[in-house]
Amino acid sequence: MCGRFTLASDTETLTQTFLDFEMPVDMAPRYNISPTQDVTVIPNTENKVEFFHWGLIPFWAKDPRIGNRMINARSETLAEKPSFRTAYQRRRCLILADGYYEWQNIPGDRLKQPVYIRLKSQKPFALAGLWEVWQADGMDEPLRSCTIITCEPNALLETIHHRMPVILSPDNYAQWLSPNEQTAAALQPLLIPYSDEEMEAYPVSRFVNRPANNSPECIAPI
User: Fold this and answer.
1) Cross-strand pairs, 99
2) Which of 20, 132, 208, 214 has the smallest number of Cβ neighbours within 10 A?
3) What is the per-residue pLDDT across 177-207, written as a single tens digit (0 to 9) for each?
4) Per-residue buried b or exposed e for 8-40, using 16+ beta carbons within 10 Å of the residue's own CB
5) Beta-carbon neighbour count of residue 61 at 10 Å?
6) Whole-prediction pTM
7) Residue 184 contacts by C-beta under 8 Å, 6 or more apart in sequence?
8) Which pLDDT value is given to residue 134?
9) Inter-residue contact 92 to 105 (CB < 8 Å)
10) In the chain, which stretches have pLDDT less than 50?
11) Which of 12, 22, 46, 102 does the annotation list as catalytic?
């Protein structure tokens, strides 16, 4: 699962990391991105950053609150689930991040320990995502929403949580973002655990538990 993440890198770092994509001139650092907020997305229809609602709302949904339950999508069942299969074929995206949180069970402690997970390089990265367009009667503008794809954890993270978000290799951005319809057989090999040797994880304060908290204290080691 991926229920909170960060994008605190400055615009210059993001521009250098994602050279092929147009970035906004200025983006405020975000240390505690939560479901239902807008997140930074590169959809497969354009080579620039957009902002989508986090929590995928299928085009056929009657109630947009369904998105609250679809912040993540399991990689193994994307081609089967009605909520995701069309987007998997046609509407894929990159969701930009530079770290994410998980809550680890601690023996003898009723409260879970928040853990911050990032690349050892501390560089930003792209999560594999899907997106949709939803518009109810009477809405002037459609709502674009997205979900983060998850997979089995790597060796580093399997003691923290049983899932991890799919972090895509830059070599796979072009295929993932291709506007052409693709089969699951072609896409599934991209949805694998990221190398544990390139990642690190450390405990952080329960300060991050409150979604309203958005400061460097969220990612400070304890």
Assistant:
1) 6
2) 20
3) 998 888 899 999 999 999 999 999 999 999 9
4) bbeeeebeebbeebebeeebeebbbbbbeeebb
5) 17
6) 0.97
7) 78, 79, 88
8) 96
9) no
10) none
11) 102
Say what the pLDDT of residue 25 is.
Answer: 83
Q: Cα separation of 67 and 69, whole Å? A: 5
**102 catalytic per annotation:** yes
The catalytic position among 2, 93, 146, 151 is 2
Active site residue 80: no
Domains of the chain with bracketed CATH: 4-219 (3.90.1680.10)
pLDDT at 108: 85
